[in-house]
Specification:
Layout: E1 4-6, E2 13-15, E3 17-20, H1 31-43, E4 48-50, H2 59-68, E5 77-82, H3 98-112, E6 117-122, H4 131-143, E7 147-152, H5 157-169, E8 174-177, H6 192-199, E9 202-206, H7 236-240, H8 246-253, H9 256-262, H10 266-275, E10 280-285, H11 290-296, H12 306-316, H13 325-329
Parallel strand pairs: 3-4, 3-10, 4-5, 5-6, 6-7, 7-8, 8-9, 9-10
Antiparallel strand pairs: 1-2
This protein binds NADPH dihydro-nicotinamide-adenine-dinucleotide phosphate (NDP).
The site of NADPH dihydro-nicotinamide-adenine-dinucleotide phosphate has 29 residues, from strand 10 and helix 11.
Length: 337
């Protein structure tokens, strides 16, 4: 079964393997397969589920809500997010203004079929709304009981520090940061992680398997396997594109002996690797099939010895991205319309 970790400096425990439904529910996979994946997650002891209003333009929340209907609410931690535009694209259908935040939470709760989410996350930083306005809206949502805790996603260290300080003044706290993090993408290590530790946030990290690349199933010079994300024309192929490089894929194949030595699959090694970081509360893992969920949860509780952690670094060499400036560089510099 899956181990639990505290989320930030809070009393909330979450399953260290968390199931996320970006690109899959309401898009790449049919609803019955989505339900089977959620079932497999619950059966394996995963209690924490992550989605966003923008995934499949609100359909992912609906599919997840339907799949979790009938489960004991107190036994689940349900996370969603606000920022990216949904709806008809009006000037206020985006960002972190009070108007968009207060309206979006109601839509998310309706689709998820719940009275509250456990964690409501700012999906990106809104450069056009005063941070005080956003934080005041979050404070009100917490007081209304519509969200129990607040987090952020892909915020820089400075943004995290400023948000955490304001939240404290308003009588609540930011408890989580949701950045991309994997053996191949380590840009949070130098700035976001130290700032988060200081401010009492932990990381729930997305694409720990680099969207499937670290499972080793994509071979250099060969066509991607049928049905994989790299063949998904509804957005998957584009998203995974940055890792579909022969140099990266060749280096990744070099990790196979390390996984073998630990008796793990490469997918399990990738998930276990992010969990070695003590500021990581959970690996947010996706799946297009229930068997993947069953395989990936076995990464919980694995310790990778120092010597093998060093070997992983040697094998991957310079294909690892470490530049902390990538957090800001990949975030929208103006509010996305
Ligand atoms: P992963 O790196 O875990 O990739 C998951 C994908 O890899 C699966 O959908 C599947 O794709 C493939 N896969 C999973 N397990 C295996 C396995 N055992 N063997 C082979 N292939 C496997 O994470 P995601 O990129 O899916 O992201 C996870 C979650 O993170 C999202 O659902 C979302 O909740 C969150 N997220 C947050 C973002 C943010 O901005 N805050 C951005 C992106 C994600 P397939 O079978 O189709 O190849």
């Amino acid at each position: 079964m899956v181990n639990y970790r505290y989320l930030g400096n809070s009393g909330l425990k979450i399953s260290e393997i968390t199931y996320g439904n970006w690109l899959t529910h309401g898009s790449q996979v049919e609803n019955d397969v989505a339900t089977q994946c959620v079932r497999a997650a619950l059966d394996a002891g995963i209690s924490t589920f992550d989605t966003a209003d923008v995934y499949a333009n609100t359909k992912a929340e609906q599919v997840l809500g339907d799949a979790l209907a009938g489960e004991r609410r107190e036994s689940l931690e349900i996370f969603t997010k606000v920022y990216w535009p949904t709806g008809p694209g009006g000037p206020n259908d985006t960002g972190l203004s009070r108007k968009h935040v207060m309206e979006s939470i109601d839509g998310s709760l309706r689709r998820l079929g719940t009275d509250y989410v456990d964690l409501y996350q700012a999906h990106r930083y809104d450069t056009e709304t005063p941070l005080t306005e956003t934080m005041q809206a979050f404070a009100d949502i917490v007081r209304q009981g519509k969200a129990l805790y607040i987090g952020v996603s892909e915020w820089t260290a400075d943004q995290i520090r400023a948000g955490a300080a304001l939240a404290k003044d308003l009588g609540f706290q930011l408890i989580s940061s949701q950045p991309q993090y994997s053996m191949l993408w380590r840009v949070i290590e130098d700035e976001v992680v130290p700032a988060s530790k200081e401010a009492g946030l932990s990381q729930i990290v997305w694409s720990p398997m680099a969207q499937g690349v670290l499972s080793g199933k994509y071979l250099p010079g060969e066509a991607p396997p049928a049905g994989s994300r790299a063949t998904d024309t509804k957005g998957g192929a584009e998203s995974i594109g940055r890792f579909m490089d022969d140099d990266v894929l060749t280096r990744v194949q070099g990790l196979r002996p390390v996984a073998d030595e630990l008796g793990l699959s490469m997918a399990q090694l990738a998930v276990a690797w992010v969990l070695q970081n003590d500021n990581v509360a959970a690996a947010l893992v996706g799946a297009s099939r229930p068997e993947q969920v069953a395989e990936n949860v076995k990464a919980s509780g694995v310790t990778i010895p120092e010597e093998l952690m060093a070997r992983i670094d040697d094998v991957l060499g310079d294909v690892v991205e470490r530049d902390p400036a990538m957090t800001a560089r990949n975030a929208p510099s103006t509010r996305v319309a």
